[in-house]
Amino acid sequence: MTDNRVPPPLTGDERTVLGNWLEWHRGTLAVKCAGLTADQLRLRAAEPSTLSLLGLVRHMAHVERVWFRRVLNGEDIPRLWNKDVDNDADFNDVDTASAEEAFATWQDEIERARVISAANSLDAVADRNGQDCTHRWILIHMIEEYARHNGHADLLRERIDGVTGE
């Protein structure tokens, strides 16, 4: 398993530290999925859960899209993966989903998020369903979201082939 992650710095300004922690967690999910087949990525955790590594990648693509493009940048764009019909479609509909499409979409949303994030101050205020939230809060939330799901990814990967690690 190739691991190209750069450890977050122990010192630095707030934007640098937050940005590097988010990149670390993005990279962690990629590492957890590395080297697996599409069928392995689709393997579910345990019934009744629909959790899978492919579902996590699809979910995080959607999360990146919503928080950076819709909330922070104010873009009027559709939700991914038919989530308007099934809020859990990112997890539920992986049996025939393309792993290549999911990873390409995730990487595209990450790239767009990086551009949007770089263009906004940490104090920029966004509207989330009628409530104000700052760019800073969004970055912290994204770190939390990835950290939580990377814990799931750890367990899923260990179940698939026994691989463990940070």
Automatic annotation (TrEMBL):
InterPro entries: DinB/YfiT-like, MST-like. SUPFAM superfamilies: DinB/YfiT-like putative metalloenzymes (SSF109854). This is DinB family protein. It comes from Nonomuraea spiralis.
